[in-house]
Write a structure and sequence with these properties.
346 residues; mainly alpha; 3 domains; 13 helices; transmembrane; Perm_prefix_1; transmembrane helix; membrane
Amino acid sequence: MTTLTERYVWAAARSVPESQREELSRDLAERIADTIDARIESGASDPESAERDALVELGHPATLAASYSDRPPMLIGPRYYFVWRRLLIFLESFIPATAAAASALGLVIAGGGWEVVGQAIGIGVTVAVHLAFWLTLVFALIERAGSGQWPGTGAAADGRGSAEADPLAWTPEQLPQLPESRRPHRRADLIATLVWLCIAAGLLLWQQFGVVWEDGERSAVPLLSPELWAFWIPYLYVLIALEAGFAVWIFRNDWSPASAVVNVVLNAAFAVPLIWLFVEGRLFSDEFLAVVSPHLDADAVRALSVLFVALVVGACLWDAIDGIVKAAKGGGRGTLSFPGNRSTRP
């Protein structure tokens, strides 16, 4: 089998129960090989084109796997079911959490207390329900208004005509990479994450012994309020430990929609308390503020405050979106047919 066929067989086999995977993999590999041989012998295609055409003819691997396992996708109809499911998982993995975090931040800035947690969770659940309902409704309308074949089945002769006719059509370029092909990239992510977490843990302790320099000498002025050691700094150390464990888990299991949600939660668990403490004036120590305040006017304080909040939110949002994109690309590259997912790198 070539790499492209291996990717197709692997993508199909992972969609069925483990007890059926070996049989499906064997039967599917033989079916693809027979189809390729038939195309080559008839002179219709060269080996590379014959393989691609054979996979296009088979259609989306998850759709094919559903027919093998007798689990027909009937929620909104078979034509768009798998596209609907992938898009729903993709959107639900970050939009409700982002809405909840944004509402919590607004309520905290408005002077709310711990009750904002319950309100933010309620908003997140409401957004999740509405998102699922309206997305399903849209796909149901598309299903009933559309015509023709399932996305990625049937075919133009070169496999491109159907994709042009139907933007939701499946093509072999969207096949996920094999797990062993992605491991080197995950190893680099793991090392970088653990190094940065160790640096963060060290800085969190080091700042307590003074970060202010005056006349070339360091003063014993802590950056963060010593009162935070009663709960919030240990809380941050717990988050660092959870992040380290999560990074190891990602290395061993790769990204998935569930891990992307966990990543969003971890980022929110860091950003929301940090911004709340800052807005309440409890984040930085009085000694540190006494040293820097004489050098700043009101406009500078306001600008730095906005910059601090923007940096915290931006960094956490970037990391959350990065995890979502990696999950959307199947832990490596190329399983979804929407935003940013057309890479065909090996």
